[in-house]
Amino acid sequence: QLQLVESGGGFVQPGGSLRLSCTASSFALEFAAIGWFRQAPGKEREGVSCISIHDKTNFADSVKGRFTISRDRANNVVYLQMDSLKSDDSAIYYCAADQTGSLECTVTLLDEYRYWGQGTPVTVSS
Question: Which of 11, 63, 114, 116 is most buried by its number of CB atoms within 10 A?
Answer without folding.
Answer: 63
